[in-house]
Structure formats: structure tokens, C-alpha cells
Amino acid sequence: MLREREQPGPADAPVYLDCNATTPMEPEVLAAMAPYFVEDFGNPSSADHLHGTRAARAVAAAKQSIAHVVGTAADLVVFTSGATEANNLAILGLARHAETAQQRHIITTAIEHKAVLEPLRHLRSRGFDIDLLPPGPGGSIDPAELARKLRPQTGLVSIMHVNNETGVVQPLREIAELLGDHHAQLHVDAAQGFGKDLEPLRHPRIDLISASAHKVFGPKGIGALILRRRATGAVPPIAPIVFGGGQQGGLRSGTLAVPLIVGFARAAELAERDIAERSALCRAFRTRALDALAPLRPIVIGDPARSLPHVLCVAFPGVASPRLASELAAHVSVSRGAACTDGTHDAFSHVLLAMGLPDAQLQGAIRMSWCHRTPDPDWKGVVRVIARLRGRVPDCFACRVGY
After folding, report:
1. Which of 52, 113, 152, 222 is the most exposed place for a label (fewest CB within 10 A)?
2. How many CB atoms within 10 Å of residue 122?
């Protein structure tokens, strides 16, 4: 049974609705990590003594837990500093093989995270041909469009699992089955879906999966690139992009952060164990949020039938989203979009632009994202703020929220 919903942080703080940016750490995760900071602090590469051996065993057990979530082998988990590094290792690490095999064509989507789009931009400068699939108005990719773009020269298909701004789940099963026995590697950026939507990531045709602990109630600073063997026994032909001591089979050199790895593993175990109850709590929160916001007639962005229950991308035409987020800050912490751009914001989200939304929706869109631990905010206060910014009181508003 999950803990009763609680507000992470000070009691008088605004309610945190930015879980797609980062999640609060589960207390059980912190407890699992603690001994590896002060007691079992050994380096797992030091195999000549007990301290190193204990650390190595902890890493091996963590790999088992993380591999189990997606149904692959433990020896194919490569720890990184997060999903950004995992995406770079997948994309740039495959480039050498692609060049040798004359497979310089890559298919991805226009709604990927910048941690995918930027490495691909680098490869374009090296002569790779990149096709960006557009989303439909509901925010998902049409597999038939991918089929039309597929060539013998295609070496990589990189499709995100869940969009970080809209919460829309992409059709991974259909894409994986469409690829079939084509030689192209299938990479999935699962930063937003790992531990929250299990079955799609277990498809045997998915070759590489990027994941990040701090999106699934674990610590910041640790992630993984998770590989899968094909039926032939072949594994993705990854070359390292970081060089040093040759750790992790030479694929990612550097001393392993054992406490963070242990925390990631515990977070993965809890996510798999509690997924049904967490999802139910998030769906109930979404229903209450939509009911509370209904007098404002918000525009929900992204197909609700394809979205995970903890995300709501919503537009309030007539209000600019920067001001909206700022004015709401006393009640709730929300986002104007992706939170991984060093504090800078483009004029409009590249995701929402790719969806072809009208200017009024682009200008007034915010993202609310929560979790199983999120309490209800003061919805009346939230609605009052938005109504004031829009300069009008919607129908039945006064009677419903006491304006």
C-alpha cells in the first residue's frame, strides 16, 4: 500500500506540479542509498578486497532490477549520468558502425527531446541524412509515415516512448513490428515512461532504451542505456564516446556511482511493484484537475486517450504562458514546457509547433505534471488567478468557486 498523499517540501510551499521535470525521491530509495555513502563506500572496480567486492555486488544486483523492468539481460545495462548521456551514447555510439555499413540514414520525430535532436544535428553535420516525422494533431506519430521513410540505408530509428510536454504515448509496438527484421537499430528515449508504462518497453524488437532515475522517484545524476539482444544473439554495435578506465565493458568509462545506482534500482523496483496503484491515484488527480478547471474552458493539448495519467498540457488562450506560470507560482509550480534547456526558453515549444497548434494555444500553454504523492492544490485559487488574467469571469464561475 502506498503512503497517503503528501506534499514534498515545506507545508506552506506551493503544490509541486512539475513531476515531468523531476520527481520527489521516495523515502525507501533514500534509505537504500544511505549505507553506500558511509559504510559500503568501496569502488566496485577494486576487486582485491571486501569493500570493492561489496560495491560490485550492489551494482550487479541493481542491474538485475533495472533490466527486469524492461525484460532484458542484466549484463546489458550500461549506467550513465542520466538519459541525456544515454541518448548520446546510443546515437553517437552507433555512428561508427553506421558509417562503415553505409547506413547513414536516420529516422526520428520532430517532437523528440533536445537530448536526441542535438546529437542528431551533430551527425547531420557529419553527412548523415535525418528524417523528422511530424506528429498528428493529437501528438502521436503515424507508423505508416515511418514505413514510407524506411530505406535499406536506414541504420537507426529513434522514437521517444512518452512525450515530455504532452504526455502522449507513442505507438512503439506498431513501430517495432513494422521494423521486423530490418537491420536498423530501434532506440527509445524512455525518460518519461520507464517504470510508468511497462509493456511497450518489453517488446523484443526494441534494441536500446534510455532511462533516468530522477524521472521515476530516484536520485538525480544517474541513468542507463539498456540494450537488448536480438534473437540472433546480436547486440547493438555501440562504440564508446567516453574513454578512460574501461569500466562497463569499455562502453562507459568512469568510476561507478554506487549509491546512485542502488537508488535507481530501488526506484525501479518500487515503480514496477506499485504501478497500478500509482496510475490509479494519478488518474483520480487528473479527473479532479479537469473538473476544477472546467469553468475556464481550457484546451487540452494531446490526445487524452493516448496520454499517461500524470500529465496535463493545457492552454488558456488570451494569457501568455510565462505570465501564467509566474502568477500561479503562489499556488502551484507548473512548467511552460521542457525543463532541460538551462533556464532558457524558445519563443514557442518545438513540440507544440510541430503539432501545428494555432498561435493562441501556443502562447497560452502550460504543463501540469504530478505523481501518486501529490496533494490537491487550492484549485479555487488557481482558477481565480487564471480568470483574472483572462480579464473575464466564465459562465457559472462565481457560483462554482465563490469568485
Report:
1. 152
2. 13
**Domain interval for residue 212:** 27-267
Same domain, 190 and 313: no
Report the alpha-carbon distance of residue 111 to residue 313 in Å, rounded.
14
Please tell me whether residues 297 and 154 are part of one structural domain: no
Per-residue pLDDT tens for 311-328? 999 999 889 999 999 999
**Which residues have a catalytic role annotated?**
340
Last residue of a domain, one of 241, 267, 293: 267
Cell readout for 214 is 530522477
Among the candidates 267, 292, 315, a domain finishes at: 267
Q: Answer for the pair 93, 318: CB distance below 8 angstroms, yes or no.
A: no
Residue 300 parent element (H or E): strand 299-301
Task: Give 257-305 pLDDT, tens digit per residue.
Answer: 999 999 999 999 999 999 999 999 999 999 999 999 999 999 999 999 9
User: DSSP of 118-174, one letter per residue?
Assistant: HHHHHHHHTT-EEEEEPB-TTS-B-HHHHHHH--TTEEEEE--SB-TTT-BBP-HHH
